[in-house]
Specification:
single chain, alpha+beta, seven-stranded mixed beta sheet, four-stranded antiparallel beta sheet, globular, binds 1,4-dihydronicotinamide adenine dinucleotide, binds magnesium ion
Length: 307
């Protein structure tokens, strides 16, 4: 009988004594999300993360660490002016989150401006998001991903799908409205379930044809409308590996059982060895930022505790 390792992120609800600061932060965030005037004020004292065509700006420090530079609104206005652009463009920044000190955090895409010129002024480099995950510290990765997802949503939802008319965003960018139809659009999320199956000794990993060669990952799939996470998980396992582990070649190219030794070896690989075509030549698993990696790591730890 196959057992999912466990369902990740099932929250343990507790009332915390220190929840006061969390409550005030969430209320502050909600206010600047909903109220245009409050958001404009927050932008004046907030932090802005720059992107160029959705690639985040990173800065390498003297000690070789990569950081996500948090610019001030006046810094961005200065950059825009120096490059002959309208400094008012900074108002297009999208609210991402706020810090523990209640400073608002925004993302702003300067894709219309020459990349190299911005990089020089900011002493940084625009890096592909997946590469940025390898370079940044853990806490910055979710922020940069969220900033990019919101920018992408705005860049692809400029028109109402009912009337074809342009949609207008609110100041924070938490919604877009078509004034012709009255429809309000909110950033779209696509819930996904991910699971690591184990038969007690081995774990089951699959690969899609689009994965880099040799890389196997935990089974994952998008939830359907109206489905619970548990139902989605059950369906995805049935679809992808079937009762007798028959593999659906449309979604998965291959699925195999891997022993603890094989998994341990794969977890140590930072960059897989490659052949002369640049293709990896060994079995490897997604990098440490990936949820699949954390599931596999946890399974390996549990196997150790059992032995
Ligand atoms: N963080 C991690 O460690 C891992 C993340 N993933 C991610 O999980 C997600 C789901 O995994 P898959 O196996 O690709 O999903 P899946 O098993 O549901 O198959 C993908 C199919 O779902 C449909 N689809 C695409 N986008 C959709 C959406 N937004 N809503 C509903 N259906 C959609 C398409 O027909 C697509 O071919 C992917 O984004 C994948 O990159 C997958 C494995 C590991
Ligand atoms: Mg899948």
């Amino acid at each position: 009988m196959l057992q999912p390792l466990r369902i990740l992120f099932r929250p343990k609800w507790m009332v915390s004594r220190s929840s006061g600061s969390y409550v005030s932060r969430m209320r502050h965030l909600n206010k600047i999300k909903e109220e245009d005037e409050a958001c404009r004020a927050a932008l004046q004292s907030g932090n802005i993360f720059l992107y160029h065509k959705l690639a985040p700006l990173l800065r390498r420090t003297d000690s070789g660490i990569y950081q996500l530079p948090a610019l001030q609104t006046k810094d961005v206005e200065e950059i825009l002016e120096k490059l002959g652009e309208d400094k008012e463009m900074v108002k297009e920044s999208i609210l991402i989150n706020c810090t523990e000190q209640n400073e608002a955090q925004f993302s702003f895409d300067v894709g219309a401006i020459e990349q190299a010129a911005v990089e020089e002024l900011c002493r940084g480099t625009f890096v592909d998001l997946r590469k940025a995950f390898f370079l940044l510290r853990g806490s910055e990765a979710p922020l940069v991903a969220r900033g990019q997802a919101l920018l992408r949503w705005h860049q692809t939802n400029g028109f109402c799908s009912s009337t074809g008319q342009p949609t207008q965003r609110n100041q924070s960018g938490s919604q877009r409205v078509c004034h012709s139809s009255g429809i309000t659009y909110y950033p779209k999320m696509s819930p996904v379930v991910i699971v690591l199956l184990s038969d007690g000794k081995r774990c089951l990993l699959g690969r899609q044809s689009t994965f880099p060669r040799g890389m196997y990952s935990a089974l994952a799939g998008f939830c359907d409308i109206g489905e619970t996470m548990e139902e989605a998980l059950r369906r995805e396992i049935a679809e992808e590996v079937g009762l007798e582990v028959s593999v659906d070649k449309v979604e998965l190219e291959d699925a195999r059982w891997f022993s603890l030794e094989e998994v341990q070896e794969a977890l140590t690989i930072k960059a897989p060895p490659r052949n002369n075509k640049g293709e990896p030549t060994v079995f490897w698993v997604p990098p440490s930022y990936a949820i699949a990696n954390r599931l596999i790591q946890e399974w390996a730890n549990q196997q150790h505790l059992k032995s």
